[in-house]
Predict the structure.
Amino acid sequence: MAKKAKSQAANTKSSRPQNEVWIYAEQSGGKLSEVGLELLGKGRELAHKLSAPLGAVLIGDGIMELANDIIAHGADVVYVVDDPIVKDYTTRPYALSCISLVNEFKPQIFIIGASVIGRDLAPRVASSLRVGLTADCTKLRIDDYTDPRTEKIYKNLLMQIRPAFGGNIIATIVNPHTRPQMATVREGVMTMPKRNPSHRGEIIPFHVKFPSSELKVKLVERAVREKKVNLKAAQIIVSGGAGVGSKENFALIEELAHALGGVVGASRAAVDAGFIDHDHQVGQTGTTVRPKLYIACGISGAIQHQAGMAESAKIIAINTDSEAPIFKVAHYGIVGDLNVVIPRLIKAYRAGGTSTAAKILANEIKCVTTSGVEVNG
Amino acid sequence: MPYHYVVLAKQVPDTKRVTGNAMKEDGTVNRAALPAIYNPEDLNALELAITLKETYGGRITVITMGPPAAAEILREAYYRGADRCILLTDRRLAASDTLATSFALSEAIRKLGHSDIVLCGRQAIDGDTAQVGPQTAEKLGIDQISYVEAVTDLSKSSFTARRNIGNGFEIVEGPLPVLLTVTASANEPRYASAKRLMKYKKARTQFEVVKAIKDRNPAATDESVKLEAKTIIDELACRGLVIEEWNVDTIGGKAERFGLAGSPTQVVNIESVVLVGREYKQVKEHEGALSELVEELKKEYIIG
């Protein structure tokens, strides 16, 4: 439950501590985006480590009620810019709102989801504030940093960890001198915190004066379609890659997904080949997923694909090539033709698991290390 | 006054072709092992500028910031349809992060005088930050439209553009000047025309002219190199084949905002991604083994 700040007298200088950790609570069409809620979980952890309050920035029109939901997900304070001018996202009024809030309350950290909105908003804000910004982080933590040039030690900096170079390197980046320390965070990589309706926080309405020079771009039309699949929410994902071979053959992937009560994913190669819509793409340029079970069929497992699925609880890889990199992240590996293996898997599942024959054959399941040395399992 | 399209470009290592020797032993990137290419979405931005020029008229200036070798992508820009190319190159710009890069680029754009539309790729494939476009727009004090797929209307005072927002699109309109970041879905960049290629393959920067003279005659004195270079450059200039070289002094601006000094971010460390093989259970492809696997997953409540 939230208590509204009693006074909102024209944004008088705040008595709030100027060391808050902030996240951007993205909303679109009056609905909170998942990525904003995901950030609240990580934000809570960072704030705890720094013994600082967790703040959230909410911008929109008629969205005050969403603040309660943000508090229930862990925010100690929600700064709300509620104005018809910012009904729809356009860059400059949203950026001006963030810039005004930062200048007023001076948070030490400000993280924003790396969504289409966040990737448009964050650089505009960081450039105006002349602060450092790290894009598309997959990990964030607090640590000390010694500047190798000056040997000066900086306590409790935000370590901003991100893949670069097509996923081939992981870079850790800091902003020692500028505040707030800003970063965008990839969607789907942080775990969404559980809703806790008894968590308490404060709502601070904030008024922004928008000069007409900031309001020249107009949204004429927005056409949004529902995604064909909700990969992020799926517990079981069956993904197909180039090895599936054709659009028609993707029916096999769908069949297995359907049988297991899961959804269909795909590698970039399968999407680029036109086998399936981009909505299904898992990986660096698609969706990041962490289901209970991920079955990779005919996917070689490029680094960019692994970046989007390696955190899955259990991974089964089916591939004809025993050297395919996908086996390096798999828990179970089946070297074989997916056209043969998938129908058998479906049959085995429908048959209800282990047959007597299977028990006898259980001995044949072997543990194999990636170096190819067989050990008895 | 005809439209002036300013197109930003970056030369990048081809990260899609990373092979075994792309990483050095110490875990850093071996740039020498990767081919340097014109950043793919910057080509989409150039293509959009060329189609705008075809429809509405105007001229195209391409700017890249990078080492002397980045002149290569400017020749490519000429082959495809650029009218003027500028290489912004200076050791003082080395180690720029996105903030310092956008500052340098915005100063270079200002130096060009009037521009109507600044176009660049949504992001570069080496850093994937998608920050330089919006930051450059902010520095110029103009509007930015990111994720642009098409410019559907253009007049002397306004534009209409379509954005690809992943799960749909947006139509936005606003005044000029504006900066657009262009996505791969915008178009299919054209190839170089044979005629332009024949003409512009001779285009050179000052640096390249001087280097060629020195390579040909290592004993040449600085004075004679300078003299010969001037003659060649003058001759190239007459035929419109000079790739202009700009540096920090050309564009002006405070030194502390360029390069390392102007970059608030610092890299703590870089690790190459080592695929740590985990031990996995190999399952034979016959029915019995697959049934066993299904049973095991059921036992762990992974499948129902």
Residues 93 and 210 of chain A are 7 Å apart (CA to CA). Chain A is about 25% helix and 30% strand. Residues 34-50 of chain A form the longest helix (17 residues). The first strand of chain A starts at residue 2 and ends at 4.
